[in-house]
Amino acid sequence: MLQRLLPERGFYLGLMFQEAAARHGRVRVTLDRPLDVAPDAGTDLGYTELADLVDDLAARLWSAGVRPSEHVAILKGDNVDIVLLTCAVSRIGAVPALLSPSLDGQVAAVLLDRLHAPWLITDRATLESTLSTVDTTLARGVLTVDEAPGNTIALAALAGVPRRPAIRLHPREPSLITHSSGTTGIPKLAVHCPHTMWNRLVPQQALGRATRGEAAALHMSFVHSRFYHLLGVLLHFGSPLLLLVDPDPAHAGPLLAAHRPGIVETHPNTYVLWEDLADAPNGPLSNVRAYGSTFDAIHPRTVRRLLAASRRRDPRLMQLYGQSETGPIAFGWYTRRGADRVEARRVGTGIPGFTRIRVVDERGRTCPPGATGAIEARTRGRILTYLGAPESYARQVDRGWWRMGDMGYRDRWGALYLLDREVDQISTVDSTLEMEDELLSRFADLREVIIVHGPGREPVPVVCTRGNEPLDPDSWRRATEDLPALAEPVQCRFEDLPRTATWKIKRLEIARQLAAGELPTLSTAPVGG
């Protein structure tokens, strides 16, 4: 009743930089590569310049013919201008549909078809690779950030057109489309609106208040809704920003050392990569007060190394659990004092006033504390629907409760523990995620370990080592003798594992490749250590 009496609020991406510039002026924003839409602008900008660029791009899009409520697919090479183009599309009341640069052509074609003849913003390289087999003439128009052949419009050719006032859609109207990770098949298009996005933003602003104004370094997927909510928090509090496209420690390390961020957020698998920075010269992580982790579970070994790298008095690692369809539904944090007692399966508690969590059995009955079941959530931040697949959306909703697709349990105090994805369960293993955490803690040189179904449904560990060094079979045998029986490990390069835009491992695809003999593996000849 109270919610109906109060005016509806909305989070509008098109106004985000304008409002931050008005509030804070020219706060520094550093990029690790020039923008494709403004290559001459350099890599050191500010809130004011970025707000002006968003306004300029919005005017160019309007001049090209883009109008309110129309879908605008953005599929181009990975760079920060994906963010600026998203805000520009939103600024004129159109609906940005963010497609990952990592999509293959077949999947991109399916998603573009579901968008029903959208406008398309892309670049020459993407047209000649991902989109080379896609019929782009089905789009309303193709806009490019650089010069491209064919029937395309270069945004540069529209420079100098008159600016236009911003347009706000109704808070319940579709305003952003992102896609799910695609770890279990073709990604689904998630439709957001300003109202549900605001209900995600507010609790995240409350969580971020303690670190307001701290310099922040981000390496995240620019096509994921989480990035925009975090950016909204940081811009609101006036944080200087370092936005990274390339996570390679050799590239990111010097930039982190130069900017000494107090806030760092990236994908859990990137944090594993950045463990190498914990003891690096010049202390790239030495000033971190708060790490943020979303998208996937983070390993205890990684938590300990990250917190140990900071010289701040009380650094913390904040973990948010959720998905694209819901936003964060649970939160928790780790401290250096408790790092040795990290329970990685504990993903936190519900967000008071915004989310509720329950665990149910196969008949939909609430499980008692400690009993494993399916995780469901009720949240004000839930998306409106899946575009082109409303029946899939309906199957996941039960009287307002959203099926997360994960298995877990709650303890007597209400904390949630994540055990496995429903589709990844292996009958002989209580929790593949828990076993993976244990193996990583026992092998300092492991970059990643994923346990998947083998051709005979046996649990197969797929391992990646740092520097692709051969796995020592004797050490492996000793370390796994007290664990449930596993097949012989299969060693791969991390770069060869199928991953999503947020570096989540596609477990089902690994299992399929393994069964078909298509998984690229390193030499199976073991080398003792």
Brief rundown of the structure:
With 529 residues, the protein is of the alpha/beta class.
Written overview of the protein:
It contains 15 helices and 25 strands. The protein has 529 residues and is an alpha/beta fold. The strands form four sheets. Strands 1, 2, 10, 11, 12, 13, 14, 15, 16, 17, 18, 20, 21 and 22 form a 14-stranded mixed sheet that branches. Residues 1-6 and 524-529 have low confidence and may be disordered.
- Low-confidence runs of at least 5 consecutive residues: 1-6, 524-529
Q: Care to count the β-strands?
A: 25
Radius of gyration: 23 Å
Strand content: 15-25%
The biggest beta sheet is recorded as:
14 strands, mixed
Sheet/helix structural class: alpha/beta
Task: Give the key terms.
single chain; alpha/beta; 14-stranded mixed beta sheet; 25 strands; 28% helix; disordered C terminus; AMP-dep_synth/lig_dom; AMP-binding_CS; AMP-binding protein
Task: Summarize the helices and strands and which ones pair or pack.
Blueprint: H1 2-5, H2 16-24, E1 28-31, E2 44-46, H3 47-64, E3 71-74, H4 81-91, E4 95-98, H5 105-114, E5 119-122, H6 124-128, E6 141-144, E7 153-154, E8 176-179, E9 189-192, H7 194-208, E10 216-219, H8 225-237, E11 241-243, H9 249-259, E12 263-266, H10 268-274, E13 290-293, H11 300-309, E14 316-323, E15 327-335, E16 346-350, E17 355-360, E18 373-379, E19 385-387, H12 390-395, E20 397-398, E21 401-410, E22 416-421, H13 432-442, E23 446-453, E24 459-465, H14 473-480, E25 490-491, H15 507-516
Parallel strand pairs: 1-11, 3-4, 3-5, 5-6, 6-7, 10-11, 10-12, 12-13, 13-14, 24-25
Antiparallel strand pairs: 1-2, 8-9, 9-19, 14-15, 15-16, 16-22, 17-18, 18-21, 20-21, 21-22, 23-24
